[in-house]
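Async update (no meeting this week)

Hi team, since we skipped the sync, here's where things stand on the single-chain job. The sequence we agreed to prioritize is pasted below, unchanged from the tracker. I ran it this morning and attached the output directly underneath so nobody has to dig for it. Comments welcome in thread, and please keep replies under the output.
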Amino acid sequence: MFPMITEAEYRKQLNRIPGRAFLFFGDEDYLKGVALRLSREALCPDPSFAIFNDVTIDALDYTPEKLLDAMMPPPMMTEARLILLRGIDFTSFRDELDDLLEVLAQLADYDYNTVIIHVAAGLIEEGNISKKPSTIMKRFAEVATPVHFPAQTDARLAVWAGKHFEHLGVTAAPPLCAELIAYAGRSMFVLASEIEKLACYVKAKGRNTLERDDIYTVAAPNTVIDAFSFSNAILDGNSAKALEALSVMKFERRDPILILGEISSNLANIYRVRLLLDEGKTKPEIVSVLKLHDYKVGLLMRSAARTDATRLARILSLTAEADAAVKRTYNDYAPIERLISILS
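Output:
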């Protein structure tokens, strides 16, 4: 059986995670964020020493050497350190995988560290986890413990929503929690924000019980945004659609560094596909060269058809500048908004 654990099992192990590496994967990014927050609280309880004990390496900054360098320093004024590696698209991370696994295999020499590889939804080939996991998942399992964060069922989301309301001092009947999910969508990022808004609204009305009309008065209807729709809006110079997509991401409180990381990765793949199309390559040949899924290559080909290689190179350059600006002004969306404005 594939040696993965659940999010609930991971929480139970928080006092036993130093000296281990974990691969956070699956469709539910919200719960990954919760698990990461709990890990930080367990490993780095004093924020004044976070600069020494809480290290984050983003995909665009990652090299095997940087990860190894981050593992070497001992903890400061505590017994453990946390190293977070995030933003890597493992669907196109082939030749570099051996080096990453080799570094993780050295963790025993620096066993005061906990290393978490945070993989955003859809950025690693999972295979059939319970029956036939993918090759990359099997290889990761040799040096890290995979922690599965699957998409939650509607029934579990409804239970979670009810508990979230209860935590905020509001009672929400199970049918109303289910109706909120049907209306606002299944994203736990969105639902958490909507529940907080609704709880404030109910209390402002002098009540402590959610009513059906409250949902349609306060909550926003479901809007689905992904990296491809955002990238295509940028390629089309459609500032209104791109800003709408960004507003949803802001509402979901997505990290602007991760937003640009996903967009940069997607645009880079589109650029590669455009160059291969210009060479006369067919879809099967592109799949073979890039080692990506057939379905993903199809999406990339449709995006590449929107423009030419010269313009794509220019967009990638401007995106790199925006990424550098975001990292200088952490958690600021302004560089992304300027990028959209320039390209429109």
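Quick observations from my side:
Residues 256-278 form the longest helix (23 residues).
Strands lie at 5-6, 21-25, 54-58, 81-86, 113-118, 127-128, 132-133, 145-148.
Reply here if anything looks off.
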